[in-house]
Amino acid sequence: MIPTPNLDHISSKDYENVYEPAEDTFLLLDALEKDAELLRNEIAPCISLEIGSGTGCVSTFLGKILGDGKAPNGLLPRLYHSVDIICCNPPYVVTTSEELYSSKSVIERAWAGGIDGREVIDKMLPLVDELLSDKGVFYLLLISENKPNEIRETMKNDYNLQSKVVLSRLAGREKQSILRFWRDIRQ
């Protein structure tokens, strides 16, 4: 078992501007740990990217899985079809479009997802196709209101990305799921 990264250096004041790790973050950590052998041995990543990093807890945890020298790198234009692991815990809470764009606090923008909780997600999905390497995997955290099956179909039909639900869990009234996407390069 890989220990959760220590976040003691983050103060309560920091959490006014950074999304505090909660059930969704820990579900993503559990999914990565479940796939640790796949990530180490089959993917053997050179570049990983976390979108919606908040405290950086997921990137730190992924670095522990992969070991020294495999820490996640930043996004650069030169990463076209080069990113081996993409992790994303997007703003997914169902809100109005107005709330998404007019949120006064930074922390509200960390979770406000707009209509169906999908406005940010839908803008990001085409970028995944541009960034993901041939051997790469993309982990996406969703709730049932985000219509995960619709996203899976879109990714398959528009980008030829296969998918699997790695883990699902109830967190309060939210049904959270981690989906893993990958290219079907056997065609």
TrEMBL record:
Coiled coil spans: none
InterPro entries: Euk-Arch_PrmC-MTase, SAM-dependent_MTases_sf
UniProt keywords, alphabetically: Methyltransferase, Nucleus, S-adenosyl-L-methionine, Transferase
Top-level taxon of origin: Eukaryota
Localisation: Nucleus
GO molecular function, one term: protein methyltransferase activity
GO cellular component annotations of the record: eRF1 methyltransferase complex; nucleus
Biological process annotations from GO: methylation
Recorded family membership: Belongs to the eukaryotic/archaeal PrmC-related family.
Protein's name in the database: 8_t:CDS:1
The organism of origin for this protein: Funneliformis caledonium
